[in-house]
Amino acid sequence: MDLLDSWALTLIVFLPLVGALVALAIPKEREEAVKQWTLLVSVVTLVLAVVVAARFDFGAAAGFQFEVDLPWISAIGANYHIGIDGISLPLLVLSALVVVLCVIYSWQHWDEPRNPRAFLILMMILATGMNGTFVALDLVLFFIFFELVLLPMYFMIGIWGDRTMRKIPGFRKEVETRLYAAIKFFIFTLFGSAFMLLGFLALYFKSGSGGQQSTFDIPELIARGHLFQGTFAWLVFGAMFLGFAVKVPMWPFHTWLPDAHTAAPTVGSVLLAAILLKLGSYAFIRIAIPILPETARDWAPAIAVLAVIGIIYGSLACLAQTDVKRLIAFSSVGHMGFVMLGIATLTEVGINAAIIGMVAHGLITGLLFFLAGSIHHRYHTREMSRLGGNLKLMPVMGGILGFTAMASLGLPGLAGFWGEFMALLGSYQPLPGLSTSFFRTAMVIGAIGTVLTAGYMLWMLQKVNLGEPSSEWAGKEFHDVDRYEMAAWAPLIVLIVAVGVYPRLVLGATTDAVVGLVETAFRAVGG
Amino acid sequence: MPRIDWLAIAPEVVVAAALLVVLAVDLFLPRERKYWVAALAVVGTTLAMVPVILMAVSGDNYSMFDGSYVVDEFALVLKGVFLVAGYLVLLISVSYIESDRYYQGEYYLLLLSSLLGSMVLTSARDLVVLFVALELTTGPLFLLAGWRKGDLRSNEASLKFFIIGVLSTGLMLYGMSLLFGLTGELSFDGIREAISAEGMASEPVLGLAVLLILVGFGFKVSAVPFHFWAPDTYQGSPPPVTAYLSVSSKLAGFVAMLAVIYLALPAVTDFWGPALWLMAAVSMTVANLSALRQSHLIRLLAYSSVAQAGFMLVPFAGGAIATDGLSEGLGATVIYLVIYAVMNLGAFAVVIAGGRRIGSYEIPEWRGLGSYSPRLGVMLAVFFLSLAGLPPLAGWFAKFVMFRAVLISTGPAGVWLAVIAAVNAVVAFYYYARVVKTAWFDQAPDEIPEDTETGPTGPLSLAMGLALVAVLVVGVFPGLATFFGDAAAALVP
């Protein structure tokens, strides 16, 4: 099994890419073969991820396991250094799982202009980027994977996205939603990541100032944290903040999100919400905070303020939506606000909250986007004013929608509860050195946010699920959830309940790693 | 009779021989079999690779004519790059030139002459050799730019290029004469030593000389504000010539600049550092903003090449600021040049192939290319996004080493330049992506352009294929490209 230990992560990352290359060789007309092949590849990847999780030593979750460290670009000191700890493990498994579910879901659901082969190839490249980001322990490698996800998503939105024409301020003519959304998504992220790269390079050069070899290695940079002080650290944190905050996205960098999520094809929205949004918050936990802990503490109040604004803003924006998919998109702004609030407390509770919040958001919002896609598929509209009585027309789908909305608003016993609850709990007692009264105020505002969240979710349910079906649907046959949808959704439903009832599923892996992280980072200040 | 090392000048000799054979054979070939000329030119450039590789393997340095002509790692690496770029341009040219069916021999003759000039240039270690080589590189291009004699735009291209070229040559020559007058030396080593021995580093006249030389090079590499000829010349010239102009001719300007600045003037950073800083910042910004408004694909590539020149200047400025940044800057620029050469030639190959099928270089006409010709569509996306610097395509590494070279100095000047470059990288992405968007996201026209290519398509496809493989492989294993940078960085004294 030694062979597995050293190869498992590499396989999880690159198997999808190899699968994509092979799929390229399958003739375009043989759609079934392409689908089966992609399913096989993604299932094998998931099985590998599960095997890794099973063989993961939870007693030593604070350290990196399954590590591989090989020279890659020796001239600039960048290595192929990968590994996982308790923080990345749940996210890696989530990523592998969601890709499988997306393949299953898309079996029968193709947006125009179809072309399943191209779509699935893009999805596999995306999988490589996502899995790679969660295992990368070298800043250059991280940067590559972080950027690799952009291209496939750009094409997914741009080719298979929403074709309705929209009037967008600043444009003379109406533009197609997908075109606007695709480029906006890309430009925003690229802008952030260009500065992120500058920050990485600055860290690299500064890491050599102690007389040692400069390095891009994340664990090594954490060990040399004392070298990064003062204005330098402040600027570097700022540069990285730009990159990560756009990706999360935090208010006020969020404006790409509602456009991209709404315009993307269903599977694209699911992947965006479930995994891509996590890359930013994960990067805060993996890179920004451990390497620059002191500066993170200086920035924490600002992050908390933006997070809280995001919570309230996201909720209020949801209440103003008429399009159910756009509503779900905006709800992500709010939920990621809770994640960032948890991170900003810099405590064990808060960061654990962030990770379980990320996993829960991945499960729940992923499912919500699946549902929004299926609803659109049936009704050919997502306008809430035209929907209504869904529960009567399609009882199973209505039921699942109700369940997921409940999970999303943070009903205790379901996965969404823990992230919000623990984030607020963490804000009650932030890291020593941070203003308690400040964070308690944030906690109160965040709590108001949970009420608003419940408000718009219930409002959405009322509009879509309850009431009488509008007369325009009278006499039409609606087929309820089909077996592909059921196969794609059932695992998510099970996991939402499982994580809700037994949060140790996630926290069991993360706690030790988070404790280790916080202790190493803030030992000096007694955190 | 000075001692001549024949192996050391073998690459140039082979190219010169090929050039003469092309000239002679062309006279005797009937018109319908002129393509043999192209084949001969391709064979010539391929053969010239052999001595370059032999010398690179042996690792010896050669110095001739009192050190005026040196074959070292720097020269060898760049000779290789010029040969590969020339090889690709020849492949790109075949079908285009073949379809015109006249002056084929002359075309290849001129192209090979220019190639010969740039190969000599890499070895030039004094002002006179440098100047002659640079003119041999540029001279034939004046004629090539005006290749389509009946086309007014082509005439305009040639004339503009010629006038600006002569002007820049004059300025540069004036600067060189000042330099010679001040130091009494022609060789780079001599000038460097004279400057440090006499303590002239802050002499105002020296500043003037450096400035004039920089202006001359600024024209050659088409950096802002000396770029005005580029868009018109690029648009009017036959596209394969434009490809050559945007790569080899720009490369030649940079090689000359690298040699003069790093070998002769390393002590004068106070003069050229700020000047290049400004040139880099302005080039990136102005060219990128102008490119946003272009609807003609080749004009867009022209502005893109100006902007890329700005990016390539960034490490120069970085090297001037940091104390130990000179070799870092040189390495970064050479890596950038190598990667740029391959991806830009790839982009031109796609644009030429697509242009011949679609019959227009107006970007909206390219809508839906990906749907009816996925092969061209994918290539277009790969090369344009590589130019934009997206991982995992080779362009990312070029940008990466550029940022690295400028951030090596942590002073505010370096950081600001890095920030300007970062913002520009994002702006540049927008117009590259716009082309990709048109090809992939827009609806194909009702009448899909038929593939009516009559000439040989093999060479063009081969050029695209080679460039594609290079862009992908270097993108994933950028260590391969650092070899060029390391070899070149050995130049810094």
What is the general shape of chain A?
globular
- Strands ordered across the widest β-sheet of chain B: 1-2
Compute the separation of the termini of chain A in Å: 39 Å
The secondary-structure element order of chain B is HHEEHHHHHHHHHHHHHHHHH
Order of helices and strands of chain A: HHEEHHHHEEHHHHHHHHHHHHHH
User: What portion of residues of chain A belong to β-strands?
Assistant: under 5%
Largest chain interface and its two residue counts? A-B, 36 and 33 residues
By oligomeric state, this entry counts as: heterodimer
* Total number of domains of chain B: 1
Main sheet record of chain B: 2 strands, antiparallel
Give me the secondary-structure category of chain A. Answer: mainly alpha
Main beta sheet strand tally, sense and closure of chain A:
2 strands, antiparallel
Summarize the structure.
The complex is a heterodimer of chains A (527) and B (493). Chain A is built from 20 helices and 4 strands. By secondary structure, chain A is mainly alpha-helical.
